[in-house]
Amino acid sequence: MSKPDRSGPRSKRAARGQRRERDLLSHRVFTGLETAIINRTYPPGTRLVEEDVAEEMGVSRMPVREAFRMLQRAGWIDVTPYAGAHVRYPQLQELREVFELRHRLGQFAAELAAMRATPPQQDELRRLVREGTAAVARADTYELAELNWDFHRVLAACSHNESLQRTIEELDKQMRWHFAATSTVRGRDSWEEHAQIVVAVLAGDSESAGRLTYEHSLRSESAYMRQLMDFVPRAVADAGA
Predict the structure, then answer these.
(1) What are the extents of the domains in the chain?
(2) 124 Cβ partners below 8 Å, 6+ apart?
(3) What's the whole-model pTM score?
């Protein structure tokens, strides 16, 4: 004779609540580690140890283990049996592919922005151009980099296409990770191009907004690649010193 099921609605709700809490913890750990990887707090090659991460973030090892799985699926770490988890190294071909996608998706987002941006979003684009131009005058490279990402995030939001926004957001994480290896900031030229893009968006000129954004993206790639090619020999030389 089988035993009666004593699990009532209350215990089931409690179990669901515990699962949700574990999921939230895992996501918090994942987000924290992802941010640290992108900004190179954990540079490529860094070994990640469950116990250390759990202690640092004040959680048990279970959400850390799940966060490692999420990081591996997202392509941020490699997990090798008996060797553990390591932040993976970027590949140049991968960066080229990311740029290739970003050029076209950014162009499409700008075209949509010219048709769909709301008045408050238009004001936000104007504000970012003003602040970026002021940061150029102050030669504030950190603020320039942050404002640059903000500008492209807001431009993507102006498309009012959530799937496109999410895709661009993931690509921009990859780009920030790669860019963190150098100090690439194009400065005045970049913000003059941003201003031209905004003029086209405000005018509802979809074709010009897309073309200007595409050309801007190509110039950014070219500037980054030039600096990267200069950076790599110096990094190798420093490592051998």
Answers:
(1) 13-87, 92-232
(2) 154
(3) 0.79
